Amino acid sequence: MAGARITPRAQDYAQWYQDVVREGGLAEAAEVVRGCMVIKPHGYAVWEKMQADLDRRFKETGHQNAYFPLLIPLSVLAKEAQHVEGFAMECAVVTHSGLKAHDGKISVKNELEEPYVVRPTSETIIGHFFKKWIDSYRDLPMLLNQWANVMRWELRTRLFLRTGEFLWQEGHTAHATHAEAQEEVARMLDVYRDFAHEVMALPVIQGVKTENERFAGAVETRCIEALMQDGKALQAGTSHDLGQNFGKAFDVTFQNQQGAREHVWQTSWGVSTRLVGAVVMAHSDDDGLVLPPRLAPIHVVFVPIWKSDAEKAQVCEAAHKLAKELREDGLGVKVDDRDNLRPGDKYYEWERKGVPLRIELGPRDLAAGTVMAKRRIAPLDANGKAVKETLSMQDLGVAVGRILDEFQRFLYERALAFREANTVVVDTWDEFVAVFKGEGSKFVHAHWDGTGATEKAIKEATKATIRCLPYDGQGPALEPGRCIKTGAPSARRVLFAKNY
Amino acid sequence: MAGARITPRAQDYAQWYQDVVREGGLAEAAEVVRGCMVIKPHGYAVWEKMQADLDRRFKETGHQNAYFPLLIPLSVLAKEAQHVEGFAMECAVVTHSGLKAHDGKISVKNELEEPYVVRPTSETIIGHFFKKWIDSYRDLPMLLNQWANVMRWELRTRLFLRTGEFLWQEGHTAHATHAEAQEEVARMLDVYRDFAHEVMALPVIQGVKTENERFAGAVETRCIEALMQDGKALQAGTSHDLGQNFGKAFDVTFQNQQGAREHVWQTSWGVSTRLVGAVVMAHSDDDGLVLPPRLAPIHVVFVPIWKSDAEKAQVCEAAHKLAKELREDGLGVKVDDRDNLRPGDKYYEWERKGVPLRIELGPRDLAAGTVMAKRRIAPLDANGKAVKETLSMQDLGVAVGRILDEFQRFLYERALAFREANTVVVDTWDEFVAVFKGEGSKFVHAHWDGTGATEKAIKEATKATIRCLPYDGQGPALEPGRCIKTGAPSARRVLFAKNY
Fold this sequence. Notes:
Two copies of one chain form a homodimer.
Chain A: H1 13-23, E1 27-29, E2 37-39, H2 41-60, E3 64-65, E4 71-73, H3 74-77, H4 81-87, E5 92-102, E6 105-118, H5 123-133, E7 142-151, E8 165-175, H6 178-198, E9 205-208, E10 220-227, E11 233-243, H7 245-249, E12 253-255, E13 261-263, E14 265-272, H8 274-283, E15 300-304, H9 309-328, E16 333-335, H10 343-352, E17 357-361, H11 363-368, E18 370-375, E19 389-392, H12 396-421, E20 423-425, H13 429-435, E21 443-447, H14 452-462, E22 465-470, E23 481-482, E24 489-490, E25 493-497
Parallel strand pairs in A: 3-7, 15-16, 15-17, 20-21
Antiparallel strand pairs in A: 1-2, 4-6, 5-6, 7-8, 8-14, 9-10, 9-22, 10-11, 11-14, 12-13, 17-18, 18-19, 21-25, 22-25, 23-24
Helix pairs in contact in A: 2-6
């Protein structure tokens, strides 16, 4: 029953990630559908936890969910020129309806008058409806969100991080003024940051993207960036100021309080199943998946330990009783009373599934009214052995709640310490090149002359990209200097890293 | 601000339905996407309530959610012959990736080696993965569910009831024996019935479909059928016994406890956004949408009533305070304190949105410590005027909870009484033809000779179809007789109606 080996991070980080996802039962490549994946029950349960928490935050900030069509007519997609150019190569296109059989082969039947694109994102189709729905300043702000699947066929894919189809939410809002839209962009990026910190236990840096990295059709893109264990950055969420670009492309106007007609100001913002990959990469270890309690489908697994059938009956009964109590506290609890596995095999399996807390319960524990608890990542004792904690069966829920809170905080603090240890300020090109040599990467704050040409030259030379211009206070103090590559004057340092 | 007129049911039932959906803010036709719709926030919120309740029921019966690819390779879809034949004409087909611009026009770029079908349902792609995941009896039963969008392009569409794209859940399970699979089919149909009765306030009849109406690839299809206000039936959910058809097509086998390999037995079952249409059609009236409280996004709307600014401040403060208390009880509550509308306009708007309970609150009520409550459908007094109830502000939550429970029950009982009044047992062809003359329709229990040919002949003559062979006890007693059309012997009566 033992799973396949998990490749150690130090040996092959990319393979380690694949192994953790596979052994954690999170997802697998669809294979027969190019670049797509199947999200397996354990992985989908993590996504559901993310959805529930984010959905609550969106509603608390005044947004309502709606659902727009999957298919976008080519002519609608093409209305915003930069947008269609940005997504053109990644589009899956529906050209036919119906199938016919002939000579034992199945083929397509009716060609459509106009092809449809499977949505890569929904600004355009939503623009079409905003025009129908918005007429007066009283209709604004319009604050919508959609939970949906989208498709972007890309050449190189990786489970959760970059797949042909993925699940996401996309917020789409329309406002009467640019200032209001800008506030919305910042507000939703704060929602993403808070979610990353509080739920994913993942510290992120907020900032503004360069023009090269901007969303196709936006006037500004903001993002949250997280550091993975290999020193590479992962963009975890984006929030776009669309200005009046889509408003003008779709002629979405409103009558203002003075009776004049103006184009609306729009925003869009999204996070996706990529966040599941971010959680995996940020917290897991060579023993497999590690999940923060607030995203764990199973918080606690009981492993009863017995020798005789009589013992089995007793310890299993006690485990099920305790499990029931914990479930009443809202926890996800599993009792692993399978006959055909030894306790060690069970430990191994649940570790790989990222269960934050294991509780062992044998006849001696039962007699003493206690259980043995082991955190998924436990401190080591003087002999280098993982510490187990003895907990009283009485008020077990309180102790478990405390441990899960501590474990959630521990993961955040560990990730933050890792990020701090892997963030540097660099002022010379030689030093910069050294950081990114081979597979090397860190968060690097460095001066840049502000041109797209230099940004590209740096990427070609080192594979490092500008992740963002961090908000003030989310990096070293804003001060002028000279570009590490060209020596030209620079107003401030920006954040570089290789990225997923 | 008054909405457009709602066509009375008696005048044009189909137009009435469209008007109720539009004025209720539930959905609208996408127009630019053939046969598809936009689900607007109020409609989507109803669907979210359905999802939350059903998802809990699925999990309580041991199912886990997962997510499979949107696109199905043609060769995978074609593996089960009956299945591909059943869905062939409705498929949307992706044949290209990428777009290119030339001469100012955008067109498709790269032809795919193999076309993909946008899933019309997922038995085939899931069959592909069941083969990879199932190896031993220990892997069974495999109990999965997916929340997803699907596409079936049909010629005649109607908001919610039949649309090119719709949202649904599809359960997919694999079992070691046929008996277990059959139990699952019945169990999930019971889940659907309980949901319809308890949440949708919609009485349904459970039964078995005829071979003609069976799901493509199933050995048996069971369904729940509801009666709409025009006497037509609406199929509200289906549960399929797939036998070993897909197991054999995809070669999904398991090693049984004796060490031999067998093909798995599968089921699938689903309900969709069509249920939103069913709720609208079953309960709404000529004043617009009526929603059962358990599906209402807004349970209570407060309409404060004032003349002076001083009065406004007082009544609005009281309304917001009461609303806050009701929200703490888990209710959806709106306070309509808009300046630019008169109370009558507000009543009208919230009635059309189907809010179950309106609470009016003026200065005199405030002084008396009471509010005036009016149910969306209220009993009439001796003068034919809708009764309003005086409720104390003290413990308002208790009174509101009681009224909402009563209103939920009232809608169920009203729908049940309507169904009983519109269900007949018919034993002659003349009588049968009379029921279905013109636009006429009812639930008709009648004898049928069991042949597909007669079923088709009856449909051609009357437009009535066999909705199901009701479970024993869900119709008149099972007794033999003679087919109303051919006079041939019949073992039992079956349920006929025109249908959506």
